[in-house]
């Protein structure tokens, strides 16, 4: 069966510090991978998605970046965090549009 | 970017009441409509994926309908229970496999 892991579960970081969140998927090959963010009081916002190794599409211009160094690994990064980067970050995978997306457990990030 | 909207934003119902809420989405270039249930401190959990106009899906006391011509879907909960309290999200993907979520309907069932 397929599983999706995210870490860390929670993170408190100072403004201006770097960020690295990791997501890995097991039990499937060549998945579409996604990073979402839920800011306080908001819905789920699509940040990045990837259809293959090294292929990243960004939805919203910001100080975050994503990379996919391996088929089932998706990394969200920042060189310098902003207060507005605080939120709940979810990684997800799917095969194609008409099948379910499966979400990881999420990372709660607080930037102080 | 697809504009997916949900209403109402929040809802409080008494235990045993039935309720429903709406998801609206662009009807052009439609691929699918997804419903998810999101409990606090957990990951969103898939409820339904619907693709055909007129589709109806059911899981226990929860059901959903789809109208792709006019661009809306309804989610119904019959006989609400406290454990149904959650945020219900809908999402519509585009040709490029990008998923666009609505802001969700937060349901609170009062015992």
List the helices and strands and how they pair.
The complex is a heterodimer of chains A (112) and B (111).
Chain A: E1 3-7, E2 10-13, E3 19-26, E4 32-38, E5 44-52, E6 55-58, E7 64-70, E8 73-78, E9 87-94, E10 102-103, E11 107-111
Parallel strand pairs in A: 2-11
Antiparallel strand pairs in A: 1-3, 3-8, 4-5, 4-9, 5-6, 7-8, 9-10, 9-11
Chain B: E1 5-7, E2 10-14, E3 19-24, E4 33-38, E5 45-50, E6 56-59, E7 62-67, E8 72-77, E9 86-93, E10 99-101, E11 105-110
Parallel strand pairs in B: 2-11
Antiparallel strand pairs in B: 1-3, 3-8, 4-5, 4-9, 6-7, 7-8, 9-10, 9-11
Approximately what portion of the residues of chain A adopt beta-strand conformation?
over 45%
Distance between the termini of chain A: 38 Å
Describe the largest sheet of chain A: 7 strands, mixed
How many beta-strand elements of chain B?
11
Strand count, sense and barrel status of the largest sheet of chain B are:
6 strands, mixed
What string, H for helix and E for strand, traces the elements of chain B in order? EEEEEEEEEEE
Percent range for β-strand residues of chain B: over 45%
| Estimated helix fraction of chain A | under 10%
Characterise this structure.
The complex is a heterodimer of chains A (112) and B (111). Chain A has strands spanning 3-7, 10-13, 19-26, 32-38, 44-52, 55-58, 64-70, 73-78, 87-94, 102-103, 107-111. With 112 residues, chain A is mostly beta strands. In chain A, strands 2, 4, 5, 6, 9, 10 and 11 form a 7-stranded mixed sheet that branches. In chain A, strands 1-3-8-7 form a 4-stranded antiparallel sheet, with no helix packed on it. Chain B has 111 residues and is mainly β. Chain B contains no helices and 11 strands. Chain B has strands spanning 5-7, 10-14, 19-24, 33-38, 45-50, 56-59, 62-67, 72-77, 86-93, 99-101, 105-110. In chain B, the strands form 2 sheets. In chain B, strands 2, 4, 5, 9, 10 and 11 form a 6-stranded mixed sheet that branches. In chain B, a hairpin with a 2-residue loop joins strand 6 and strand 7 (62-67). The mean pLDDT of chain B is 93. The interface between A and B is medium-sized, with 26 and 26 residues.
């Amino acid at each position: 069966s397929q599983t999706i892991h995210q870490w860390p579960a929670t993170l408190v970081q100072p403004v201006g510090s770097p960020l690295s969140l990791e997501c890995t998927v097991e039990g499937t090959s060549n998945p579409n991978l996604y990073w979402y963010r839920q800011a306080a009081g908001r819905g789920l916002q699509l940040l990045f998605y990837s259809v293959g190794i090294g292929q990243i599409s960004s939805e919203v211009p910001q100080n975050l970046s994503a990379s996919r160094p391996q088929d089932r690994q998706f990394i969200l990064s920042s060189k310098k965090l902003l207060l507005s980067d605080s939120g709940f970050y979810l990684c997800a995978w799917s095969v194609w549009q008409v099948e379910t997306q499966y979400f990881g457990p999420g990372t709660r990030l607080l930037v102080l | 970017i697809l504009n997916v909207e949900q209403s109402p934003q929040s809802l409080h119902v008494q235990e045993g009441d039935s309720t429903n809420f709406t998801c609206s989405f662009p009807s052009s270039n439609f691929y699918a409509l997804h419903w998810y249930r999101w409990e606090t401190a957990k990951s969103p959990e898939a409820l339904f994926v619907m693709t055909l106009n007129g589709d109806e899906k059911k899981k226990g006391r929860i059901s959903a309908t789809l109208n792709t011509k006019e661009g809306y879907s309804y989610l119904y909960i019959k006989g609400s229970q406290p454990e149904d309290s959650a945020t219900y999200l809908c999402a519509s993907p585009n040709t490029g496999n990008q998923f666009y979520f609505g802001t969700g309907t937060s349901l609170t069932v009062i015992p």
